[in-house]
## 1
Amino acid sequence: EQLEVVFLLLIPVIILLPVRFVPETKARLGMGREWIIKDEGINQVIKKYWGNYKKNYKRSVGNGALLTAAWVIWAADVYYFYGKNTAMLSLFIIMGIILFVFTVNHFSITVHYHMKLKAALKNAFLLTIGSPLLFGAVALSSGVVLYVSFNIFRVFIPFLTGSLIAYLSFSAFYRSYLKTNDKVEE
């Protein structure tokens, strides 16, 4: 009975993901991008956040709908195999980590470049699979932040967790971008 209630509560969350969560996440990544690239302080944080939010909103909703569908399919698979088949559940957990890094890389690419959806998805996939160092940096830093947030400093979850993951992830993405550019120029 309780599980059915959870599913009913998830419906509005799933509907709001592409409309609210994805644009907000991209706005956070946009702020992190500006801090990393322009090496500025934290002045005008709210103004920059809303500027990034408005600038990327329409593209974010489209990207968010597609990524939300992928995450819902993944969650349904994990739910189905939970307690039934440990090997398949482990495989889907690994696929979830890959999907998480893909999602973060996709957000970083769409914030840094102005690409069409298909090109951004293709580049995010190639970056996720083709750059093990970036994959490890994003997965490990996000995992550490989430572990510390959920197990030690729970009060930071609504305030700092998402922003810290966005900052660290875009920082890793940008370092990878700079290395690639340096290799291309040589």
Note: The two ends are 62 Å apart (CA to CA).
## 2
Amino acid sequence: LMLSSCNLTKLPSVLRYLNEITELDLSSNQINGVIPSWVWENWNGHLSYLNLSHNMFTGLEKSPSLVPMGSIYVLDLSYNRLEGDVLIPTIRSGRTDIILDYSNNYFNSILPSVGRYLGKTSYLDLSSNKIRGHIPTSICNASELQILDLSYNYFSGVIPSCLAQRKLGVLKLRGNQIH
């Protein structure tokens, strides 16, 4: 279901009842408020592509850090106003090319054990947020990671040595306070 650029200001209520939807694009609308929990509760196991980018979402209902999204391979939440902990999908899919884009939001923290849940992620973009603290060393557990963009946050401390030893295709760290 592709509803990109439709001038929507809220999630269509009918979506709640589409239990077996596999792809949904609601990007470039004007949807604000929180992303309701039924998105991951109703669509877990079916939804493989979800693009909510370029809207005005501010948070996640019930503020979970981990959400069951067993079949997701693309989750794009970029260019919103999302705050709090970075949302981490728990994925059961056999895919190893998962794309997670959370850039250009207001996320301010990330689970220290984030890498434990990113084993099959190849692309992770957390750029242009407000994430503070050290880069979690658990990020090195994401064995399929090829592109990691942590630029323009407030990360401090040292770069985990495991990142320097990995064969990442792209590692972006500019605009932080690391050394």
Note: The mean pLDDT is 92.
## 3
Amino acid sequence: VEDGSCPAITRDFGTEDLNARKYGGLTESEPHRRLKHLLMRSLGADPAFVDSAEERHWRASLLGLGTRRPDVSAVYGARRVAFEAQLSTTFLSVIVGRRAFYRAEGALLVWILASFDPLRRRMTEDDIVFPNNSNALVVDDETTAQSEALGRFRIRVWHPAPDANDDWRSDIVDFADLTLDVEGQRAFLVDVAGRTAALRAEVQAKAREALAEAQVKRAAREDDLRRDFLDYWSSPWESR
């Protein structure tokens, strides 16, 4: 309510004001520059990616959408891809706005992390990971070395393990192995949402089968009781 009990006054702050306070005037950190450098090296090793660039302005093809400046952009096959190197917290509205921009452009936004710990992840990482079909994409020294050695963009993917509640696993795979979903603005290795839906459908089907079986058994018991009752009342009085 900002009634004076707290010295912080933030009600009228926008994202630019909050970022200015958060970063103290610094425009970019060394870890962020390093992650962009690793990403550029990885893309440069793969001939499937062309026209890679850092911080290139992306002007929307539709009026009213403005411009963006992704950390790294490239062309992959016939698709333009924007990579955002995410190290710090960001606003959910910013994530949603960027996704909408690149979807309208027919391009794909891919969020890249420097590391990921499923047991110590932050809520702002969840804002990126879970809309990406619960797949966290990481570029680090190991993946970059593999990219340059193999000539293919390699990426580490963290995802929930199959049939496990809280266990996650990571795999280093080719970027080409990922499913690229422009409409959903997702790039993922494991279709966690599809797998979850299939498991839910299986559980619901088993529940329906169990209910139907229980109803059949109940109907059979009722028939038996009804038959016994009628047999009793239709029998001679002296035999009762």
Note: The longest strand covers residues 79-86.
## 4
Amino acid sequence: FFIAVFSIWAVVSQNKNFSFAVFRSFVQSANKCWLGAAFICMFGFIWFEGFALVRIARHFGYRTSAMDGTVYGGADVYFSAITPSASGGQPASAYFMIKDGIPGYATTVALLINLVMYTLALLAIGLFCIVFKFHMLSGFSVLSRVFIGIGIIVLIFLAFVFFMLLKKGGILYRICDALIKLLEKIHVVRHGEKLRNKLKSTMAEYQECSNEITGQWKFLMEIFLWNIMQRLSQLLVSFMIFMSVGEGFKQAVDVSVIQCFVAMGSNCVPIPGAMGVADYIMLDGFTQIVGNNAANMELMCRGVTFYGSVITSAVIILIGYFLRKTKQNSTIN
């Protein structure tokens, strides 16, 4: 919360052309239909994330609904936003998936596959933007280009790591075994050998599950396309907002390209939600398009794409959590 407040303050205070009166008039005069479409796209970012996980779970034979998937997606978006390097997103999604009866090994495979496709989807869209809109990338400041470049390198590295964890279960086993040893050393775990035996059994199921799905390219392409839809939903938020304030189709397309560069560059630092860095890159990019109105437009777009999705996700996971608690209590009674 502190970082969010500081980031917004930095955008407002460092821009002499910003005024709350102008910002309020921007919001009030915005076309409500286009603005509504922006919020639908924002929700699509959450929904497509979860539905990709639902499709993988169903492929493994576990029954789960699109509504359940919305909770998985909301958990990922919310906890990714409030933890360094988005490290809390997958464990939060895993919590709800396991609560819904999907085994831990299948949940892990599903999340890793989705992570690979999620990363590749952004890289694919980013490559398209670089090829066809390179002049916009070159229009960023040197610092922004450095952030974007580092972000691309991090994305490629992460895609490779996630893929290796899928294909080589032994790597994941060694990581878990090292964690068990650490917990034994600090006396958190007493029966480490029992845990290792259980881990070996689980890893055998994990590898079998992974091998079964990684060879099915047609299905993997489907998951990739769902992740493309998720990424496009995020980029279209800024497009819809620019259309809502009458900036025109060309500028709305350009701002979607800038949003893509922001998404890639935001991976360069382990700050929750990349707050500060994402704001800087977005503000730098928007200056190319709207000049003095960059701060107003940045706050509108960032407000929906990031803060709007975080608040919506928080509401979704609270509802999902209490519904599951209610169901669990009624089953016990």
Note: DSSP finds 14 helices and no strands in the chain.
